[in-house]
Amino acid sequence: MMTKYPHLRQDFAASLVVFLVALPLCVGVAVASGVPAELGLVTGIVGGIITGLMRGSSLQVSGPAAGLTVLVFEAVSEFGLPALGVIVLAAGLIQLAMGALKLGRWFRAISVSVVEGMLAGIGLVIIAGQLYSAAGLKAPASGLDKILGLPGAVVDALGSTTALVSLAVGAGTIAVLVLWKKLPKKAQTVPGALAAVLLATVVTQVFGLSIATVEVNGLLASIQPPGMDAFGELANPAIFGTIIAFTLIASAESLFSAAAVDRLHDGPRTEYDKELMAQGVGNTVCGALGALPMTAVIVRSSANVQAGAKTKASRVMHGVWLLLFAALLPSALALIPLPALAGILVHAGFKLIPFKEIVSLWRGHRGEALILVATAVSIVAVNMFEGVLIGLALSVVKTAWEASHLKLEIVDKGAGPIQAHLSGNATFLRLPKILDSLESLPQDRPVELDLSGLHHLDHACRTALENWAERHSAVGTEPVRVTEPEPAKATAA
User: What single Pfam family name could you report for this chain, choosing any that match (predicted)?
Assistant: First the structure.
């Protein structure tokens, strides 16, 4: 048996660690997303057993992710819980198609500052929203209202003993998570998130605290495959923006996670297109079951690698343990205090904000740092999908601006024609500056315009330069002499 499965012992031990890390996160993400807790477990089970068996990245673990919490909450609020299955199912089918068309590698071309800005924005919205949950208060709907409403929430909490007790449990959970990493390595065998939830549950039960706990419906009762009414939501054009957002964000997070996990081990590298298809299959199944969307999760994946996993068997077994827990011990969920789950998600949201990266980017690449901050602020102020689109647009504009480096040199010897030498890349982005300089030249002097130093001359620039030459020559001055760029050197767009 051991010769056929040489790494079974390491994979078995790693699977237990990943299960203990995943359990509180699956439940916490579901509750924060506004869906039954069991649906988080369903997604974890599918991510482990179904996606886990597939090819792609052998050691990364999939399941419900804090990064999709905000998007799921918005979707459930707008379209209702039954439509969630339709959205996730459609996103999974698109992921399958993208993997089949070998588009997985293109996700690696997305600017890192946009991805980190996306995660930072999600982190801020999660932290703001879960602070309300920690106090047992109802959070406003939009990200901006969540943040703006925090001072009022603090006043409300200070006036309520129940809210203060609830906040204390949430704060205690965060304290355990932070301090857990400072304990000896042997104590850290139990994951911090699980230890924090267990301690909060024990304290709540021992002292009989009147704090809201997880609502339990039972696994089978929570699984609601989308019916015809849910599919009828596809008649609403707004749902397609949400489907695209689910697809792009879940895919980007999974493939960036895969790249990060590859740096943690020496085993086989990720096959990006196959990994995208594996995520697609998982999300298609989750959608058919009416569960949460899945993505590869760096917290679970790094725990898997650090626990000594060698093959995909560890992640499949972690799915089996989640299934056994959901089937045999569902009532245990009803003991978990909601502020403890809020504390775990506040901690998770904090880790999504890349503080070190922002500082290093500001020192070396200020433009990238601004894109990161602008993406995060847009997600908080507008919404998830449009915030990411704003970040991508800013990234494209910045790249185009940097690529359009252009130098204009004017040589005027006092007598004879004025010489104007253009070199670099002449694009429409630099057009106002070029025309201002050329139009300031004396109207009564002949001009020689030398374009031979250009590597690129786009159509807008060529047309504008031709129009300027005509205007300059129209008042009786000698026609502008233009030296064209060499065909092999410059390309006209």
Answer: Sulfate_transp
